[in-house]
Amino acid sequence: MYRSRGLVLAGFVAGLTSVAQVAVALPAELVSHRATYRMGLSSSRSGSGMANASGMWSYQFADSCDGWVTEFRLNVTYAYSEGGLVETTTDFLGWESKDGLSYRFRVRQTRDGQITEEVEGTAKLNGVGQAGIARYTRPDTHTIKLPKGTLFPTAHTIRLLDAASSGGRLLARPLFDGQGEEGPFDTSAQIGHAVAQPAAVSSPLLDSPVWPMRMAFFPTGSSDPLPEFEMSLTYHPNGVAEDIEQIFKTFSLRGRLESIEVLPRRKC
Fold it and tell me: Is 167 within a domain?
C-alpha cells in the first residue's frame, strides 16, 4: 500500500457568518468529531497500471483532556488494468499532548488480509520549536532524531489554521506522524483565501467558509525538487476537512465527506 499520510489531517479533524469573522478567529479551536469519507481514484497517469480504486476512510478525533486522540481506518481496494484486485487497510491510533511536545503512535497495515507493517512508538520534543527523539518499540527497538522545528500532527493542523486565520499563505515545517519508519517529512503548505462553498453533508460543523490548502511532503534532507507525495484539502476553522485528495507520483485518490457527527464533550 502507498504510505497514507492521513495524520496530516489530525485535526480534520461552529458557524461563522463571514470571511471577515474567520480572519480573526485565533487560536484554532478543534472540535471532537467522527467522520467517514468515500475514497475513489481521481486520476491515473499513463503506465501506472491503476484502473480503479475505491474504499472508505473512517476517522475519529477527540479531546482526551490532557491531549488529542486520533483513530482512523483507511480501507482501499485497487483494481489494476492487467487484472486483479488488491485490498489494503491502514489502522492508526495516536495520542498527542496539548502542548505539542509528546506523542504516541501505533500503526498496522495489511494487504489482502495479511499484515505487511506494524509500527509503534513514542516521540518527544525538547521544547516548542526545538529538536527531539522518536523511540520505536515495533517492529524493532531503535531511535531517530527529530530536527528542530518538528511538529506532531495536531500541532501541525493548529499551526495551519492559525496561519490561515491571520492571513498567512505558507507554512513550512518538519512533520512527524509515526507512519512507517522513515522518520519526519519536510512539509510545505500553500494556504488559499477563505471561500464559501456548499457543504458536502448537512451539519453545523460545516457552517463556515473553508481554506483551500495544498501540502507537499519531502523526505528529510532530500535534494529532489519533486515531493514524494502531495495532499490538497479544504479546512473549516474547527479543523474539519472536506474535499481531500492524496496525490502520488502515478495516481491520485480523492476522499469525499459522507457523514460527520460531533462527539460528546468529555468531563475533565
Answer: yes
